[in-house]
Design a protein that fits this description.
Elements: E1 4-5, H1 6-13, E2 16-19, E3 24-25, E4 29-30, E5 41-43, H2 56-61, E6 66-69, E7 83-86, H3 90-108, E8 112-117, H4 122-133, E9 139-140, H5 151-156, E10 165-169, H6 177-184, E11 189-192, H7 200-203, H8 206-213, H9 215-218, E12 225-229, H10 233-236, E13 246-250, E14 257-264, E15 269-276, E16 291-300, H11 304-317, H12 322-331, E17 341-344, E18 350-354, H13 360-373, E19 380-384, H14 394-407, E20 412-416, H15 421-430, E21 437-440, H16 443-453, E22 459-463, H17 471-478
Parallel strand pairs: 4-5, 5-6, 6-7, 8-10, 8-11, 9-10, 11-12, 12-13, 13-14, 18-22, 19-20, 19-22, 20-21
Antiparallel strand pairs: 1-3, 2-7, 14-15, 15-16, 17-18
Helix pairs in contact: 4-11, 11-12, 13-14, 14-15, 16-17
Length: about 525
Amino acid sequence: MIRLTAQEMADLLGGRVVGDGDAAVTGDVVVDSRLAAPGALFVALPGENVDGHDYAHRAVAAGATVVLAAREVPDDDGAALPSVVVVPDVVEALGALARAVLGRLRRTGELKVVAVTGSVGKTTTKDLLAQVLSASGPTVWPEKSFNNEIGLPLTVLRADARTRFLVLEMGASGMGHIRYLTDIAAPDVAAVLVVGSAHLGEFGGVEAIQQAKSEIVTGLVPGGTAVLNADDPRVRAMAPLASGPVVLFGEGDRAAVRATDVQVDGEGRARFRLVVGEDLPGAADGASGPAEADVQLRLVGEHHVTNALAAAACCLALGVPVGEVAERLGQAEALSPHRMQVVERPDGVTVIDDSYNANPDSVRAALKALAVRARAGRRSIAVLGEMLELGDEHVEAHDAVGRLAVRLDIHRLVVVGEGARAMHTGALQEGSWGEESRLVPDVDAAYAWLQDQMRPGDVVLVKSSHGSGLWRLGDLLTGADVAADAGPHGMTELDADADDDRAAGPGAVDAARGPGAPR
């Protein structure tokens, strides 16, 4: 973060300083006392079960120079901490601080904000954007899925005077959530990927999801560029909301940035011809078409073509030449854990760990990728858990997934937990027989079955909503640290008992939501 004193922060936030007003923040902004280092700002987030205020003294002992809090905070001996900025609402103050810092950076530099939203693909697209843009200049992007009213300001506050590109992921589980985020960081370029059925239960209908996602378009800076999926009619319909240029991407002819000759190799990785139209709206000099270049993705799954096109369109609009975009996309890796992460085990088993989150669209895509990967005589095993937040569509959506697994000729379907039972019954109704589909009660039972049944050459997919806990199975199968997915650097005090599929509105904090709750 840029250097600010406690008094400067208090003046920006309408708060008051308790202690040393000249104490300066010269390091990172953290919400986890274990991440505090000399010069840090510790943000004491309140929670229902765990309260960050109780950990402020630990952060100060580790070197934090200022604490942002909702009340005065004593240390273990009852004495006041050296420097505390007291504000009425810590979460709102965190957002206001990010807004103010970003405003200063924009006034003094060439920083551009790029944001992405959509029912599926946000995190992967964010990771692709980060890797393409970082080759053109210093780039800041979110760790994991820092896409809510806590995670997004934390990402913004990592930017400094050197930052040229700030990549943000924006999620929502209700109306106004993305509007709140764009009020903190209005994008210069914003992409909408897909309007799907994620969080259908909270929104009440896909039309409401469409309206919520469109807030990123109306939240652009004046004249900012909207990057929209031409293949999704609900996304394409957002074009009139844009005050500036609109760039359509997709596989159809109406797209200015499109993929042709899409093919998938035996490992499930897509390659395509990136075609850019003659007049690409919003593109800087030298970045517009007509132009073509070949792209060979390293990511597994044909659905990543959409993510790659969205990233390409954003980067082209920011002035990156077509050839460089194509080359960098081909070099990009999966950065976020549990996101179509492919691990080749020493015993010859391939694990596709996509267990961070799930909805009907992403599960269908993952199953298709599994089927492709196992074409060459290998046995496919899909271990699937519950998809959360589907409301009245819950049973029907799970039933459809089970039926699709049978139609794709997945060799073994392992359904984990009662909440996902309809997948198992759907598979049985579709014609699964014998041991092709089985229902197990929990992660331990699924792991025990796999340990007994897996053999060299098998391809195993692990997929569920994060709150279903199947990410633990992904860690067990890949040998990862089981605690590694609990938070950006381990659990924060706020989300020690986090169920990341729950989400609350802007300004509300509880112990079930950390900086990166997926939305």
